[in-house]
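Example record for the data management plan.
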Amino acid sequence: MNLQDQIGVLEAGVDQLLQAAAAAHAPRADERAAAVPQQDTPVASSEAEQAVAEQPHAVAVDTAAEAAGAVATAEPVEAANATVTDTAEAIEPAAETARAAPAQPELHVARPSQNEITLTIGGQTVTLNALQVGQMIEELSNARASMQPEPPPGIPQGWRFASTKNPMMAVQKQSNGDRLLVLRHTGHGWVPFTFSPDIVVQMYMMLTQR
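Corresponding structural encoding:
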């Protein structure tokens, strides 16, 4: 074999060695390429672990927020309940006071002597003489004349009265033809009545009939 042939053989051997070396490096590159996702996986896993680790904190924050909201909601309810309680406590004494309030005072009339009348109202007693009693009767009579209901039209059964025999009287003619008749009653004093002409005739017939 000459020199040229030997060089050709050496070059072929070198090419084979290079190919073999390239083939040996190729699987390692594939392994490196495959190793990259495996490195990413722990990263993703660590992110998941971090999210899981942070989740209790987030749950705690949400729970705290819900608790704060519950407290905020409970405060107006408690305030309203407190207001109702205060109102009830304020009303109860007033109701007790109203229940404990004394009844309306009653009027008690007594006659300690012939010429005196005592009026007792709410524990206070007033003594009236004859003139004061007459004045009170007159005032009460004038007030009663404009009050309702009116006195009964008929004589009430069991009515007690004190009649005056042959009373003093005064008669006065009115401009419209009516007659004013004033009778003096021993209890009521001077009692005035007005009669129209036809009633005067009826009264005369009643008084003169047998």
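Summary line stored alongside the record: DSSP finds three helices and six strands in the chain.
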